[in-house]
């Protein structure tokens, strides 16, 4: 199982990405919330509000998820970070049952 993070420029984009991922049946749920970010872009420091999206997925769906995010994201270089994770057996089964097989 993977936990994957990405960020979005605003709530509308976060909802759009969440809907695309849910409707693709690659992830069974997405959490998103407003955050404050500070980062370097084109050699300048930027500070702004963004939305962080967190979703769980099966490892075999990572590449499709990555491609969907790139195809539908407003950022030239979207943050896509994944972590391997362990889950309770019942949660893992729920994940399997609610994603495309």
UniProtKB/TrEMBL annotation:
Coiled-coil intervals, chain numbering: none
SUPFAM superfamilies: GlnB-like
Superkingdom of this protein's organism: Bacteria
InterPro entries, per database record: Ion_tolerance_CutA, N-reg_PII-like_a/b, N-reg_PII/ATP_PRibTrfase_C
Record-level GO BP terms: response to metal ion
An annotated Gene Ontology molecular function: copper ion binding
Family to which the UniProt record says this protein belongs: Belongs to the CutA family.
PANTHER family with a match to the protein in the record: DIVALENT CATION TOLERANCE CUTA-RELATED (PTHR23419), FI09726P (PTHR23419:SF8)
Name listed for the protein in its UniProt record: Divalent-cation tolerance protein CutA
Organism: Helicobacter jaachi
């Amino acid at each position: 199982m993977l936990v994957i993070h990405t960020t979005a420029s605003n709530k509308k984009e976060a909802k759009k990405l969440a809907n695309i991922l849910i409707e693709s049946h690659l992830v069974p749920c997405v959490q998103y919330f407003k955050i404050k970010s500070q980062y370097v872009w084109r050699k300048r420091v930027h500070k702004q509000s963004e939305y962080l999206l967190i979703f769980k997925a099966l490892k075999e769906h990572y590449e499709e998820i990555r491609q969907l995010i790139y195809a539908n994201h407003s950022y030239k270089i979207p943050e896509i970070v994944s972590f391997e994770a362990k889950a309770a057996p019942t949660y893992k089964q729920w994940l399997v049952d609610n994603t495309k097989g």
